[in-house]
Design goal:
heterodimer; A: 813 residues; mainly beta; Immunoglobulin-like; Maltoporin, Chain A; 22-stranded antiparallel beta barrel; five-stranded mixed β-sheet; 7 helices; 49 strands; B: 202 residues; seven-stranded antiparallel β-sheet; three-stranded antiparallel β-sheet; 3 helices; 13 strands
Chain lengths: 813, 202
């Protein structure tokens, strides 16, 4: 009996098994973005010994499968291996998409391959190994690595990048995909970016990268954090540094956690502090800096979709050279003629007035999704809060109270659609909406330099990239931007009438100040008018470029950019004293957008030993906006004689043109020589005078010794030679008549040429498994040379910093 | 046969784009959350809108008053804003006192003389091309460094008739000052006041 049951059981179960395991799973493997069939893909049923290869049509087939859920591993050369879950019920067909063009779509990090933002623009990358050398310095300092990029400085710590002679609102800075909105119009407002949060920086000369904005008449700086690695890993970096000049010290650390699933997280923090810097012969009193930075990001990144949440915080307290606070033009003349600054105190870490305190918060949330046989869609929202306090030497013991208190809040949302299913012809479309609010706190007790305003921006753009053949790439783009500025601005009657606004802008008066109170409309007893200027700007920008590779060694680009920039709040509304410049600065409500036509060409030659790149450009700017002395000239104020400068637009044009050269030659296995130089000229065509603040010719030449057998030791010696700017608008100098005394002559002209030598060395020691220790020693201005920099706005008051020895220890883990 | 297509899903894409553009529209319609602060005029706390230097001779029979009144509040010394009432008599001794105002507020009393720190941060310097001698009055405010501030001064006119100027400077946070010779001298580049009047000794 027992045997009968056993036989029955075996028969039943055997019958059942053979009943359910005759299903067929068939499928097709195709490319995700253009749907072409992928031949020779390997398809493996996980947990079985079944494996097959796709045919020419990308098809595959498994027989004799049971009805259940299987996991399939699909792999193909140059594709990311994919594991998918398939439920088999009878005969089942599945279409499986792999991405065969990860490199072309810029989705994988190929070691050593450059991640450029553009195809045909004049673009230079600064990679992480170079950025690490600038850990204790600023973004503006690091950008000077790029030929043609200089900086306009206010002392040693406020360093604003200048691309081919243009800066501030003419340069657009992108920080992890977010356009920096930090009162960048101010020449004394340094970019609020912690250099330690960047992994790579691209400098794009001109406005070729239209997706970032159409107003980058000078160029675009794109700061990117580290790329996401899709594997289970935990890694980080800590840098500790110190320097002799200013007795500065800095610390930065970052930690990354990544998962193969695509999840990632990163946290990074920095702290930097220095006291008074020292020129070769004296202390630069009140030039200290304290900076705290923090950034964090997390998200998930896969090929098909992903998101990122990012936050960064930066707090800077920056001392301004005490001797740079000027009462009047006579004081400025005295400072220029004085052999040493008026205020020289013992070294101190204290930061007193005049000083700046700026905090910047940046929040970003972004999401992207790829669609099969189509492309990629990105959406992003970002918020920035920039709060700027400027403390001045104020009358009546008010120095502890900020003289300027501006809070700028910016909300931006943008969407971008990239159609890349045809790698030979890619398209990109996008639109952007931005709302900005500026709040000028009236509790400062100082008349607002910049008024309260709301600003609305809307932009739409399209560009295409066309790989015409293996050697020729072309791209083109078009962008439209609308901006509306809606401000509330008080004008003193004297200023209102002096500017002729009583005739041209009478309709924007909404109130009058009578006995300290605002009353509606125009009042005969008004001391000030409250106005509501609302200005709309419509701007078109465009770019077209080609890149041709003659062969493996020679290549060339040619490009044309049209950029249009609406005037910034300073150019429209400024009305106040600028103490370190010893002048009144007056904006003009009549200023319109300026337009730049930039033609550029680059020639590149690259071999295993020699790398040469020559960038040439001609930038023709219609209605160029700049600051010039007014016809009134010197105003007799209660503080003493004070010059008045105003923002004007050249009635015809300004032109800037120049050449930037970089070359690198590998002399032998261990010796390398490098060269960089930049030549630029800039003119106001109508006035037939040179533009002010144009960088003089500069050349940097160096030699580097590298020995990988000595723990990757390298040492370099660099020569920096900056010529005297021999073209200066002498019309900007003053001769101030003083009763019964000789005239005061104020010569704002350029300082003499200078030559500096710098040294840097580095060694990498293995310390633990998968960890290394980099030790860097640098000496800037080896010979402690006295010099003044034409592009430092405090050059009238003191020499530049003297010798500085920097030691930096970096642990990679 | 059952087919699982993972292809472009038109419905999903439409929703995706619709959401994105809705978001953009929402942002574009952000309303102004202005709290009205932009319509509040700034009360200028440290402006000097009026300066008066009054000279009175010993028997109070002669006064000379130098005045600057910033009628349009632009800090500029415009034509008509400076007045000189009276002439100095030759060989006459005058007590002089300076006054500073910010609108109706006594700037000198509230912003400079209110505490010792304010006194120590400031210093008046006078100069003239006329035949005057000058000392700082005994009841003038004393700075922490032993120099007198220069609010109250005593001037003695020379014997000759002449015309010329008197210049008043107020230095702020000067590295060094000296009241030697009465008129005073200061280093530094930060002047709160620098104004010159045309005067006459008759």
């Amino acid at each position: 009996m027992k045997n009968i049951f056993l036989i029955l059981f075996i028969l039943i179960t055997s019958f059942g098994y053979t009943q359910e395991c005759n299903s067929v799973l068939s499928g097709e493997i195709s490319d995700f973005h253009d749907n072409t069939a992928l031949e020779n893909a390997s398809i493996k049923l996980i947990g079985t010994n079944k494996i097959t290869i796709s045919d020419k049509q990308g098809k595959f087939r498994f027989k004799d499968l049971c009805d259940k859920t299987y996991q399939i591993e699909v792999s193909h050369i140059a594709c990311e291996t994919k594991i998918i879950t398939v439920k088999v019920q009878g005969d089942t067909h599945n279409v499986i998409k792999l991405e065969h063009h990860l490199e072309e779509l810029d989705e994988v990090n190929v070691t050593g391959k450059e991640r450029k933002e553009t195809k045909t623009a004049q673009e230079t990358l600064i990679k992480s190994d170079i950025l690490e050398q600038y850990s204790s310095l600023s973004l503006g300092d690091a950008l000077r690595e790029v030929p043609g990029v200089s900086s306009i400085n206010t002392g040693n710590t406020i360093v604003k990048p200048m691309i081919n002679g243009l800066h501030s609102s003419r340069i657009l800075i992108m920080n992890n995909g977010v356009r920096l909105q930090d009162q960048e119009w101010g020449i004394e407002h340094a970019p609020n970016v912690d250099i330690n949060s960047a992994s790579q920086i691209s400098v794009i000369k001109g406005s070729g990268a239209l997706a970032y904005g159409g107003d980058a008449i000078g160029g675009v700086v794109v700061i990117n954090p580290s790329r996401i690695i899709r594997k289970d890993t935990l890694y980080g970096r800590t840098i500790i540094g110190g320097q002799t000049n200013g007795r500065g010290y800095n610390f930065t650390s970052s930690l990354n956690k990544n998962y193969e699933s695509g999840w990632f997280a990163k946290v990074q923090g920095s702290y930097k502090r220095n006291g008074d810097f020292k020129a070769p012969d004296y202390n630069l009193t009140n030039t200290g800096l304290e900076s705290t930075g923090l950034s964090a990001r997390f998200g998930k990144k896969t090929f098909e979709s992903g998101f990122e949440v990012y936050y960064s915080y930066l707090d800077n307290e920056i001392g301004i050279l005490r001797s740079a606070h000027i009462g009047n033009i006579g004081n400025l003349a005295a400072s220029i003629n004085a052999p040493v600054p008026i205020f020289i105190n013992d070294f101190s870490y204290d930061i007193n007035e005049p000083k700046q305190e700026v905090t910047h918060h940046l929040f970003k949330a972004s999401y992207y999704k790829r669609f099969k046989n189509f492309g990629k869609v990105d959406i992003q929202y970002d918020y920035q809060n920039n709060h700027r306090f400027e403390f001045d030497v104020r009358r009546g013991g008010r120095s502890g109270k900020a003289a300027i208190d501006l809070e700028l809040e910016t909300h931006t949302i943008l969407a971008n659609v990239k159609i890349d299913n045809n790698l030979e012809r890619k398209y990109n479309f996008g639109l952007l909406a931005r709302y900005q609010n500026n709040f000028a706190n009236p509790d400062t007790g100082v008349r607002r330099l910049i008024p309260d305003y709301d600003k609305y921006d809307f932009g739409i753009y399209a560009n295409t990239e066309w790989a015409i053949n293996d050697n020729l790439i072309a791209d083109a783009g078009l962008r439209y931007d609308f901006s509306r500025v809606d401000a509330l601005k008080f004008y003193r009657l004297s200023r209102w009438e002096e500017r002729g606004y009583d005739e041209d802008f009478r309709d924007i008066i909404i109130g009058s100040v009578v006995a300290g109170e605002v009353v509606d409309g125009i009042d005969a007893n008004a001391s000030q008018y409250l106005t509501n200027p609302i200005f709309d700007f419509h701007n078109i920008s465009a770019a077209v470029g080609v890149k041709y590779e003659f062969n493996a060694n020679h290549w060339m680009t040619l490009g044309y950019n049209l950029a249009s920039r609406a005037p910034n709040p300073s150019e429209l509304f400024s009305d106040g004293v600028h103490h370190s410049a010893a002048r009144y600065e007056i904006g003009d409500l009549r200023i319109e957008s300026e337009q730049s036509h930039r033609i550029s060409t680059t020639y590149g030659y690259i071999t295993s030993k020699l790398n040469v790149q020559v960038d040439a450009y001609y930038n023709h700017i219609n209605s160029f906006i700049y600051l010039v002395p007014t016809e009134v000239g010197i105003l007799p104020t209660i503080r003493g004689p004070f010059p008045e400068w105003e923002y004007v637009q050249t009635q015809t044009n300004a032109t800037l043109f120049g050449v930037d050269v970089s070359a690198n030659y590998q002399v032998g296995p261990r010796w390398n020589i490098n060269h960089k130089s930049s030549f630029i000229k800039g003119y106001d065509v109508k006035a037939d005078i040179p533009l002010i603040d144009i960088p003089p010719f500069a050349t940097l030449n160096g030699i580097t010794y590298t020995n990988t057998d000595w723990y990757n030791f390298n040492a370099s010696l660099q020569s920096e030679w900056v010529f005297e700017q021999n073209e200066f608008p002498d019309e900007f100098n003053y001769s101030v008549p003083i009763a019964d005394e000789d005239d005061i002559v104020v010569d704002l002209g350029p300082p003499p040429a200078y030559h500096l030598m710098h040294f840097q060395s580095e060694i990498t020691l293995p310390v633990f498994k998968q960890s290394s220790l980099d030790i860097r020693l640098s000496v800037d201005n080896i010979f402690n040379t006295n010099y003044r920099n034409y592009l430092n706005r405090l050059r009238f008051f003191a020499d530049e910093m003297g010798r500085n020895i920097r030691l930096q220890i970096q642990l990679n883990y | 046969m059952k087919t699982n297509f993972l292809n472009f899903n038109t419905m999903k894409t439409t929703k995706f784009f619709a959401s994105a553009f809705l978001g953009l529209a929402l942002l574009a319609s952000c309303s102004d959350d202005d709290d009205g602060s932009g319509t509040q005029p700034v009360e200028e706390e440290e402006a000097i809108t009026r300066l008066i230097l009054t000279f009175t001779n010993d028997d109070e029979t002669d006064t000379v008053i130098l005045t600057w009144n910033d009628a349009n509040l632009d800090e500029v010394i415009d034509a008509g804003e400076q007045t000189v009432v009276g002439e100095f008599d030759a060989d006459e001794v005058y007590d002089a006192e300076i006054q500073l105002f910010n609108m109706d507020e006594d700037f000198l009393a509230e912003d400079i003389l209110a505490d010792q720190a304010g006194i120590d941060a400031h210093f008046f310097v006078y100069s003239t091309d006329l035949d005057f001698t000058m000392v700082r009055a005994d009841d003038d405010n004393l700075r922490g460094d032993g120099n007198r501030l220069g609010v109250k001064t005593v001037w003695t006119a020379g014997p000759n008739d002449e015309t010329g100027t008197i210049t008043i400077q107020l230095f702020h946070e000067s590295p060094s000052v000296s009241d030697d010779g009465g008129f005073g001298s200061a280093t530094g580049t930060d002047t709160d006041i620098d104004i010159t009047f045309n005067v006459e000794i008759d």
